[in-house]
Specification:
Elements lengths: L1 H19 L21 E5 L4 E5 L2 E2 L2 E2 L3 E5 L4 E4 L10 E8 L4 E8 L8 E4 L2 E4 L9 E4 L4 E4 L15 E4 L4 E6 L2 E6 L4 E2 L1
Antiparallel strand pairs: 1-2, 2-5, 3-4, 5-6, 7-8, 8-11, 9-10, 11-12, 13-14, 14-15, 15-16
């Protein structure tokens, strides 16, 4: 089921991309600057606003809670300015839930690999202790607002690289983290 959902989403996204890209076979150039060195981010496409929602990951070296909105029709990218944002995480995943018209972000961690979150100052690295909120976080591009969906009952376990896909016919998000399959009902705000 998850593979079929992912493939249908990928083909739908490809169809949109083919309609909006020039026939020259070249990549589009951005008319505004990207933040430097973004990686380990999550991205969704919001068909309501026509924007790619690019969230979290790293901007330069530290983990980011930033959200950037890329508009393919005019090649611009801008930083969103929601009143509330998820904690700084990377390696999270996301999908778009049509029923609520929101991007759903979950999983990821604030510390991983050889360098935990923190900062360098005067040649000394100070690590930060954090408690990650596992999500899901719901982002409404049109309102530029995040909502922390405190799920009823079970919660997501935080995994790095836990792919997510939305099934519109049942209004659920499927997510696979290592050996756990999470089924999140967007309407009920519940993880099964």
């Amino acid at each position: 089921v998850c593979v079929a959902l992912t493939l249908s989403f990928a083909f739908a996204s490809l169809a949109h991309a083919q309609q909006s890209l020039p026939n020259s076979g070249t990549c589009r150039k951005l008319t505004s600057e990207l933040p430097q060195q973004m990686w380990e981010t999550a991205a969704t496409f919001d068909p309501e606003t026509g924007e790619l929602v690019h969230h979290g990951g790293h901007v330069t070296y530290t983990q980011s809670s930033y959200t950037y909105l890329y508009h393919p029709d005019n090649g611009t990218i801008r930083r969103a300015k929601p009143r509330r944002t998820p904690p700084r995480v990377c390696l999270q995943d996301g999908t778009y839930a049509e029923s609520r018209k929101v991007s759903v972000f979950a999983h990821g961690r604030s510390g991983h690999g050889s360098m935990p979150p923190g900062e360098f100052k005067d040649g000394i690295y100070t690590a930060l202790r954090t408690a990650d909120e596992t999500g899901p976080w719901l982002y409404d591009s049109a309102k530029d607002d995040f909502e922390y969906a405190r799920t009823v009952g079970n919660r997501f376990t935080s995994y790095q690289h836990a792919p997510m896909a939305y099934d519109a016919s049942s209004d659920v998000v499927y997510s696979l983290g290592e050996t756990e399959l999470f089924i999140y009902s967007v309407h009920l705000n519940k993880v099964f």
